[in-house]
Amino acid sequence: ARLVVLVSGSGTNLQALLDACADPAYGARVVAVGADRDGIAGPIRAERAGVPTFVERVADHPTRADWDAALTAAVAAYEPDLVVSAGFMKILGPRFLARFEGRTVNTHPALLPSFPGAHGVRDALAYGAKVTGCTVHLVDAGVDTGPIIAQGVVAVEDGDHADGGEALHERIKTVERTLLVEVVGRLAREGYRIEGRKVRIPA
Ligand code: GRF
After folding, report:
1. What's the CA-to-centroid distance between 30 and ligand 1, angstroms?
2. Is the shortest distance between the CB of 9 and ligand 1 below 6 Å?
3. How far apart are CA 153 and CA 36, in angstroms?
4. Annotated active-site positions, please?
5. Is there a cis peptide before residue 94, judged by omega within 30 degrees of 0?
6. ipTM
7. Which residues form the Formyl transferase N-terminal domain (predicted)?
8. How far apart are CA 25 and CA 181, in angstroms?
9. Which of 43, 89, 125, 129 lies in disulfide reach of 8, CB 3.0 to 4.6 Å?
């Protein structure tokens, strides 16, 4: 399966996918990496792996709709079977979803539907949650609201309150990378069916 991965940061989830794709049995190949900003580590990881990259910044377009169209075209050029939003910090627009909804997965560092949005780790910590974790889900028009595919649980520890969630987010990202690689591999090899809110991946 052809994967396009979208990033906005350090790209450790992307790196886990690049590493997994090195094994032909995994059944997927990262054909391009897209970013919404310059100066981040994600695209450098792609270049090191010989994977083409592109940047589509909202600020470079007169309207959000123009950015939506430009991002959609940039992704479509690589003819992906699956788009993976791995730490991509923009809401994908209607044009993009018209083309790729149902074939786009996102990873979120909280147990959805709890703590959606850009600060899931911090919000769970502030709420006093005893466990949190990560969610891999299909992207729909909402913010972190698409059908859940898989989740991983991470315990919150007392010391986590001292560093604004840094240590907790690192522990979540360790689980998240493994979960994302596992889910993307199975989607790439076996596909999936959606029954209402449930996403079934063949056992
Ligand atoms: C991940 O935890 C992702 O869920 C969140 O931001 C982090 C991105 O990490 N949105 P990386 O860029 O993959 O290292």
Report:
1. 17
2. yes
3. 29
4. 108
5. no
6. 0.93
7. 2-184
8. 13
9. 89
| Residues in CB range of 203: below 8 A, 6 or more apart | none
**If you measure from the C-alpha of residue 87 to the centroid of ligand 1, how many angstroms do you get, rounded to a whole number?**
4
Cα gap 85→88, rounded to integer Å: 5
pTM exceeds cut of 0.90? yes
pLDDT in tens, 24-50: 999 999 999 999 999 999 999 999 999
- What mean pLDDT do residues 171-187 have? 97
Q: Which tokens in the block code for residue 67?
A: 């950015």
Cβ–Cβ under 8 Å, residues 149 and 137: yes
163/71 Cα distance (integer angstroms): 35
List CB contacts of 83: < 8 A, sequence separation 6 or more. Answer: 3, 4, 5, 6, 75, 100, 103, 104, 105
What is the arithmetic mean of pLDDT over 70-88?
A: 97
Q: Of all protein residues, whose CA lies closest to atom 11 belonging to ligand 1?
A: 11
